[in-house]
Amino acid sequence: MNVEEEVGRLKEEIKRLGKLQSDGSYKVTFGTLFNDDQCANIFEALVGTLRAAKKRKVLTYEGELLLQGVHDNVEITLNPLTPDAAN
After folding, report:
1. How many domains does the chain have?
2. How far apart are CA 21 and CA 24, in angstroms?
3. Region 23-51: what's the mean pLDDT?
4. Domain range spanning residue 32?
5. Locate the Costars domain: which residues (predicted)?
6. Which of 71, 78, 79, 83 is the most buried (most CB within 10 A)?
């Protein structure tokens, strides 16, 4: 899987596990993503995929590097989709 594919899959998983917000974004905690069995099977390097998605401005979270345990309660926000980027 290339980076774009992984970011796309990450968006799907955040929608599956997260909560839809009134602005169209989705929020999920890092711990929820990290501890989910399905995510563990999809992403060989979840933290790397999160960083790639953040760099592409697909999602936001505080800090640069998220670590299991220490950052389990950090909220990850999947930015609202614009009509031309809805994939």
Report:
1. 1
2. 5
3. 94
4. 3-78
5. 1-79
6. 78
DSSP string, 53-85: HHHTTSEE-SSS---TTTTTT-EEEEPPPPGGG
Query: For 18-34, how does the pLDDT look when each residue is reduced to its tens digit (9 = 90+)?
Result: 999 999 999 999 999 99
Using 50, 70 and 90 to split pLDDT, how confident is the model at 85? very low
Residue 85 belongs to some domain of the structure: no
CA dist 22 → 11, 43, 52, 69, 81 (Å)? 18, 28, 25, 29, 13
Cα distance between residue 21 and residue 11, in whole Å: 15
CB 50, CB 10: distance < 8 Å: yes
pTM of the model: 0.88
Mean pLDDT of all residues belonging to the chain: 91
Q: How far apart are CA 15 and CA 28, in angstroms?
A: 9
8 Å CB contact between 61 and 50:
yes
